[in-house]
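Quick one, tokens below:
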């Protein structure tokens, strides 16, 4: 997962075998390691923490073999990342929905265009259906051309009720209609799609905040594209500032993900990644597994 980091660790281990490491040598190689860590999209503050801890372990020491040194690096990475996981609450969306006495459970979906947000809305609808939880979908994207038709196609395939209005309608009003319909028809959950927002557009972000204030969601989900690179960090920061979302779903994790995207969201917000998108099918939504992530870092 972290190919560049593995190469940097290999180079670093060459100077660590059978001789003591000077501070000057260590500084030069650690600078390269820091660059590789940042290019793997690992957050800067985490890179600093890892680099500093590695320096403390290495300076003035020598190692009998490179594998011994590599194990130290691996352990340092793992322990630092585990600290992040330990600070994040474990959330089970299905249990949350089932435990709420007053229905519906309101799920608000936020994110930028192109992140796979609408498809993820459909995947959530499929997931709830598989767990015997009834749901309706709200077409809250009344701005983007074709958005309502796109979400309607998904709803039809899943045989789920869609609540929609015409283009240009107030998204907060559409969301409210969805909640009211769910109440009167004893629906367990309502999934509210929204227009994709660029995180730098404050007017559009205020619109998300209006929807949130009107429907008072039980759980707000940020949809992030795992291939977005460092831009994912700024997206996460801005959406969390406006919505204080409760958890994230990362899409396109089946592609060439560097690993830093996951760490960025966790360290930036302290909120859990509840699912990851691993393909195009409705069933391709997996619960995020910390142990699998850790074991895959150096494979």
């Amino acid at each position: 997962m972290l190919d560049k980091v593995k190469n940097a660790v290999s180079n670093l281990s060459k100077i660590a075998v059978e001789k003591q490491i000077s501070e000057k040598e260590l500084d030069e190689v650690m600078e390269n390691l820091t660059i590789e860590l940042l290019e793997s999209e690992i957050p800067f503050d985490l890179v600093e923490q890892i680099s500093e801890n590695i320096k403390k372990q290495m300076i003035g020491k020598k190692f009998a073999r490179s594998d011994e040194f590599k194990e130290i690096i691996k352990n340092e990475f793992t322990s630092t990342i585990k600290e992040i996981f330990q600070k994040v609450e474990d959330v089970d969306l299905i249990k949350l929905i089932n435990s709420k006495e007053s229905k519906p459970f309101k799920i608000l979906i936020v994110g930028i265009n192109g992140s796979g947000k609408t498809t993820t809305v459909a995947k959530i609808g499929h997931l709830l259906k598989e767990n015997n939880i009834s749901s309706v979908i709200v077409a809250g994207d009344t701005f983007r051309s074709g958005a309502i038709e796109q979400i309607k196609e998904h709803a039809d395939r899943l045989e789920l009720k869609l609540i929609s209005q015409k283009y240009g309608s107030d998204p907060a009003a559409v969301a409210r209609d969805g909640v009211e319909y769910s109440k009167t028809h004893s629906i367990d959950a309502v999934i509210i799609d929204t227009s994709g927002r660029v995180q730098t557009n404050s007017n559009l972000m205020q619109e998300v905040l209006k929807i949130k204030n009107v429907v008072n969601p039980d759980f707000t989900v940020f949809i992030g594209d795992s291939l977005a690179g460092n831009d994912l960090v700024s997206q996460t920061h801005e959406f969390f500032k406006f919505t204080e979302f409760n958890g994230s779903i990362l899409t396109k994790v089946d592609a060439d993900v560097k690993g830093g995207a996951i760490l960025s969201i966790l360290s930036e917000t302290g909120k859990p990644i509840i699912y990851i998108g691993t393909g195009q099918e409705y069933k391709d939504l997996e619960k995020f597994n910390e142990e699998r992530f850790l074991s895959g870092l150096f494979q």
